[in-house]
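Bit of a strange request maybe. I'm writing a small parser for structure token strings and I need a real example to test against, not something I typed by hand. Could someone generate the tokens for this chain?
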Amino acid sequence: MSFDSDKPRENCGIVGIYGHPEAAQLAYLSLHALQHRGQEGSGIVSSDGENVYRHVGMGLVSDVYSNPAKFTRLQGHIAIGHNRYSTTGSSVLVNAQPILVTSKTGPMALAHNGNLVNYKFLRDQLETTGSIFQTTNDSEVILHLAARSQKPTIEEQLLEALQQVRGAYSLVILTKSGLIVARDLHGVRPLALGKLDDTIVVASETCAMDLLGAKYIRDIKPGEMISFSPQGEKTWQISTPPKSAHCIFEFIYFSRPDSQIFGEYVDKTRRKLGKNLALEHPTDGDLVISVPDSSNTAGIGYSRRTDMKFDIGLIRNHYIGRTFIQPSQKARDFNVRVKFNPVGGVLQGRRVVVVEDSIVRGTTLRHLTKMLREAGAKEVHIRVSSPPIKYPCYYGMDFPSPGELIANEKEIEEIRDYLGVDSLGYLSLEGLLASVPDGDRGYCTACFSGNYPIPVAENIDKMTIEKEILIKEV
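Reply from user aminoacidic:
Good idea to test on real output. This should exercise your parser:
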């Protein structure tokens, strides 16, 4: 089992550029900034107003665009990009985004972050009436619904399609002459709007805009659809938005700490998580360390509230790819050791408080605890800057089934015994909501509480259709 399988899996990262002569290059740079949101594949589609160009591939951004000849073909002043982690649909090239199709109103490409909860129902209906799908991901449903619409313009067709889907979606859509962006009614996933001089920049996180030197303007509002074209900018309301249900895990783990999401810097919120965790679960210790990198700022917050020294007790190897060959099945914890190494000089003889952002299965943290003790830690106390994860996510995070979630199967003391630590404390749901901006305005906490803001069909089973796809992209 790899380290990555024991963490919440990234959803996706999307970017849209309108009005720049090197739009694809800007999209490419933005995707580098959004690499943390998906490492399975990447793609860019561009348009010069007459022709549309596409390049997708499997792997990291640097792998997909390593051939300059392919990249230079992405011409035009409009571009959209996508970094993928598959939550619906297999991890194969045919599922790589942006998806590009041609309908009666012209070419259209779409990149999607999120998950549609009525995907299987809509797909079954469409296939029954003759639609032929090329992928197994839920995003293609939106394109089929738009293509079947009798509305006269692409914008109106998309609006009609989005009024039929339920779930989480942040979208960037490229047409031959324009860019369209949209966000679901609950605003589950982040989507930010910015400008670089006269160029429109839309991205999952503002760190992509920082890289370009673009200025963040605002978030795309829940239920809002905006088009940018030679005719100007136009806004539609998909439907009357209910109470927001922003994914609170964006603050806990997914987003980069230097990004602004849902109106607040991630770093600032994570420090509050650590401070409230310290108030709820103080302990006598000699130093605080974090599990790098996503827990670093929560660890700093815990340290400052307790006046315990924060130190670097674990070094992470940033040069290991998502997959690597284990030399032997007997080396069960090799994949943890290749990712992390304890700093013996820091840990020797110390009572160590380890701040972690979340626990999914607990296997990695169990191995890390063993490594810390072997490095000389006198005591190991785990503090988690989120509540216990008990329920799966259907809105774009790939959490395991309930039986694979350790907090669904075990009580906290049983988890402590399994991890082999001296004490274990989770941040409460109340403490979590007190840490995020406007905690009462509407966040999705379903993975902790089981209260799903968007109804989920009982037979969805993570909305995945696992079909063998033999189509190869040339």
